[in-house]
Amino acid sequence: MLRPILIHPDPRLKKPCAPVTEITGEIGQLAEDMLATMYDAPGVGLAAPQVGILKRVLVMDCVKDPEASARPMVLINPQVTWASDESSSYEEGCLSIPDHYAEVTRPAQVRVRWTGLDGRETEEQFEGLWATCVQHEIDHLEGKLFIDYLGPIKRQMITRKMEKLKRDRARG
Ligand code: NI
């Protein structure tokens, strides 16, 4: 089932999310819905607060080559356990901030530990778009958006445009 994606500004996008204490059927359904919503958008990552659920769950699939097979990932309670000194910049966007992109600098590689839907702990090192995406999505779980890395003027400009977009959408 597709879930509506919250658009910035929304108080639910600014709150730290709670850890998942038990992997219930509800969490399984949430992950499945989030993946469907992300692919439909289309996007490469989505965090639970973006669909209004303040829990530490994110999904991603950064396989861009249409010939390659998809790699849908579900990360529960993800934590960065190591970040490289080397950084990289990427033109980031966000499904909660449609049609706006900005260069954000982050560590080029990160190691992340998380719990899977099967309850198993996994740790993996990410680089390239995967590293950018996983850090962007983990930020969402802390109530942080990529525009928080920008200067106040640019951030306010984007926020005003989003407010207008929401007003226009509400009007139909
Ligand atoms: Ni985002």
Summarize the structure.
The protein has 172 residues and is an alpha+beta fold.
Task: Give a verbal description of the structure.
The protein is of the alpha+beta class. The protein has a single domain (11-171), classed as Alpha-Beta Complex (Peptide Deformylase), CATH 3.90.45. Helices cover 29% and strands 30% of the residues. It contains three helices and seven strands. It has helices at 25-40, 128-141, 152-171; strands at residues 45-47, 57-60, 73-83, 87-94, 97-107, 109-115, 121-127. The strands form two sheets. Strands 1-2-3-6-7 form a five-stranded antiparallel beta sheet. A two-stranded antiparallel ribbon has the order 4-5. It is globular and about 45 Å long. The two termini are 23 Å apart. Nickel (II) ion binds at residues 94-96, 136, 140.
